[in-house]
Amino acid sequence: MESEVSRNPWRVLEFYSGIGGLRYSLLKAAVDATVVEAFDINDVANDVYQHNFGHRPFQGNIQTLNAADLDGYNADAWLLSPPCQPYTRQGLQKGSSDARASSFLKILELVPQLLRPPSYLFVENVVGFETSDTHAILVDILEKNNFVTQEFILSPLQFGLPYSRPRYYCLAKRKPLSFEVPEFNCQLLRTPGPLLGQTESTMEKELLLSPEYWDELLQACQPVDDFLVFKTFGNRKDSSTYSFHANDSVKSDRIDEENDVCFVPSSLIERWGSAMDHRYCLSSFKALLLFYKKLLQICEGYWLPVGNCRGNFPDKMTSLI
């Protein structure tokens, strides 16, 4: 990608910035980019963003922005994670008629008016966005303004991360820029192959939805304790320093007290325990997930509570789907 742009670092606008997830992704991906402005209307999220990055996002209504405002930033790339409520599978799915979709639609309407349109757009949302009328508007505006797109529904599990959270992603490049595997242009894909420069045909949808496929990914993913932060536990490779139940009773009491927030409240387990399917594991297991079975339609596609479970482990793990 570095050869595609003549200016480094990229100048980036981050819309619906929240606490800075997309900006953090830029840092983790080692992209040579500078976020010249972020936008979010939530003051608490902006407090966290400012704490994380030393910059407070613009807190006005995005709908007040005009084409001249956006041209003034002279941005190379836009990152957008608009409100998901109009598209979530458990909501009313009102799409563009939902008031919470109006700011995103306003941004899209400004694209044809720009004198300095971005070279790249990245849009993230929930599964369900891809079938909405807002999605149709997005694709139509991008195509009419000389953008080529590749779209994906991907889960962190497909990248070796112990987390099942499918999400919709749209990558857009303004011509003459192009994708490394152009045969996947204007398609909705469910594997990350094209992102890795792979040209093999995509997997059948039936296989991608099969429990066996996701169980195989689960077995291959990194252990969850690679991602947990044990700030008060010293050398995490020495289990005696971060065990929740160390032999030293004083240390144990202190550690248990400091980490009570990590456990699912007993009241919640007592109320909903029969509706939960636990994935038990410790550091020797590949994943640590506590997710809903009977409540799957409520929780599928949302966050999954994580807990440290003790006891006997089932020989066969149930499906993630």
Describe this structure in words.
The protein has 321 residues and is of the alpha/beta class. The chain has two domains: 203 residues, Rossmann fold (3-Layer(aba) Sandwich), CATH 3.40.50.150; 88 residues, no CATH class. It has eleven helices and nine strands. The strands form two sheets. A seven-stranded mixed beta sheet has the order 2-1-3-4-6-5-7, sandwiched between helices. Helix 4 links the parallel strand 3 and strand 4. The longest helix is centred in the middle third of the chain and has 12 residues. The chain starts with 9 loop residues before the first strand and ends in a 22-residue tail after the last helix.
Short description:
With 321 residues, the chain is α/β, with parallel strands linked by helices. It has a seven-stranded mixed beta sheet with strand order 2-1-3-4-6-5-7, sandwiched between helices. It has a two-stranded antiparallel ribbon with strand order 8-9.
For the secondary structure, the number of strands is: 9
End-to-end C-alpha gap: 35 Å
- Unreliable residue stretches: 232-252, 277-321
The overall pLDDT, averaged over residues, is: 77
| Helix and strand element order | EHEHHEHEHEEEHHHHHEEH
Tell me the overall shape: globular
| Rg, nearest Å | 22 Å
CATH homologous superfamily title of the largest domain: Vaccinia Virus protein VP39
Kindly name the structural category: alpha/beta
**Proportion of residues in extended strands:** 15-25%
Give the % helix: 25-40%
CATH class of the largest domain: Alpha Beta
Largest sheet: 7 strands, mixed
Order of the strands making up the biggest sheet: 2-1-3-4-6-5-7
In CATH, the topology of the largest domain is named Rossmann fold
Give the domain tally: 2
CATH architecture of the largest domain: 3-Layer(aba) Sandwich
Total number of helical segments? 11
